[in-house]
Amino acid sequence: MDHFQIINGVLHVEDVPLPRIADEVGTPVYVYSQATLVRHAQVFRDALLNAGVDNPHIAFAIKANPNLGVLRVLAKEGYGADVVSGGELTRAMAAGIAPEDIVFSGVGKTAEEMVQGLKSGIGQFNIESEEEGRELAAFAETMGLRATAALRVNPDVDAKTHGKISTGKAENKFGVAYDRAAGIYGRLAHLPGLEMRGLAIHIGSQMSSLEPLEAAIGKLGALIRDVRASGNNVTHADLGGGLGVPYQRDAVLPPPDDYGAMVARATKGWDVRLMFEPGRVICGNAGVLLTRVIRVKASASNTPFVIVDAAMNDLARPALYDAWHDFDAVAPTGQTGAAHIVGPVCETGDTFAMGREIDTVAANDLAVFRTAGAYGATMASTYNSRGLVPEVLVSGDRFAVVAERIMPATILDAEHVPDWLD
Ligand code: LLP
Description:
Layout (H helix, E strand, L loop, with lengths): L3 E4 L2 E4 L2 E2 H8 L3 E5 H17 L6 E5 L6 H9 L3 E4 L2 H9 L7 E3 L6 H10 L3 E4 L2 H13 L4 E8 L21 E2 H12 L4 E7 L10 H19 L6 E3 L17 H11 L6 E4 L3 H4 L3 E11 L7 E4 L8 H5 L5 E3 L6 E7 L8 E9 L6 E4 L21 E5 L2 E6 L4 H6 L9
Parallel strand pairs: 4-20, 5-6, 5-13, 6-7, 7-8, 8-9, 9-10, 9-11, 11-12, 12-13, 15-17
Antiparallel strand pairs: 1-2, 2-3, 4-14, 14-15, 14-19, 16-19, 17-18, 20-21
Helix pairs in contact: 2-9, 5-6, 7-8
């Protein structure tokens, strides 16, 4: 069931009409549906359980949506967290996620971040290089601890997604080279500061086919056998995230059930606890970016520019990855027409769509960019001295501001003119 529905001609998130949020919080604003988040969390887990994956460890990749309210929803669903920075670790803990359910990924963990992770007692470090593993082992030993860890391997598989979000090819910075992985694992396993327990992969994001994942999982299986053959333990395998979501109404993506069945098939007989790091598939379709049309401007052609108050600083994905987000009027009249959808920021990259057939909208109308719950607010910036976009969580007929709008004046307050310029 969809929690974004037109009721009496007006788009609602659950039972809340979007104009009410626009009136009270202003625009642009991200709006999330709690029921959708919960449903996606359950569907993903059920897909694994129904396929026979026993006791999966699911760590939400909180980079996709690190909002505290959102994390709290997922914590209550029993989700752990995949974090990639000290800031994300702090958030995960603040949301009430148990430290043992936190996985620390990331190719450039700093000394401070490793120590923070050790002090917090997190469940697993995903080590991305032998150098990092040795550093982590040394810190742990000094602190009288052993860091529980997995080694992230780069399986050299093309995820067949956008180049900027593809992570599993040999030339990408992530993980250790596949051919060297067994050797590195063995050497790290001998360090007293490390408890090596597993192997990890993550080959890319917004994957629209399961084949690359299945290929990568196959290579991981062969590696687990090699590592065990040389006398080392492997009790955990982290399969990362990467499942795509439909950004266009008619797009067909692999359903979670197919993913679960593929995982069960490809990992048969591994005798490990499987771990997962889904991000987008949990929160992508649970959010919209609510925006107001500033004005409609005639162009040199017959196609007008619809200038909205959201911009590339609020939703960077179209500018960064040429990403598509469906655009719908909050109170559609039934009329449609071709338009260019742009924001107010002063560069041509601030374009959400060119020549797209959309609901006809006029100045002051409200509209939404769909599927904006993942990699939306978290990638916002203050470019053009715009504020930071707020976030709202809806549950039934209630809503709460879960991240306030940070006004340009507040950002200015953190800047200083040096005394020599006084
Ligand atoms: N695990 C690791 C180690 C990751 O690097 C990522 C995402 C995930 C899990 C979660 O992947 P997901 O299930 O969300 O695909 N900003 C880009 C996406 C970057 C993804 C980075 N890593 C976008 O807006 O498309």
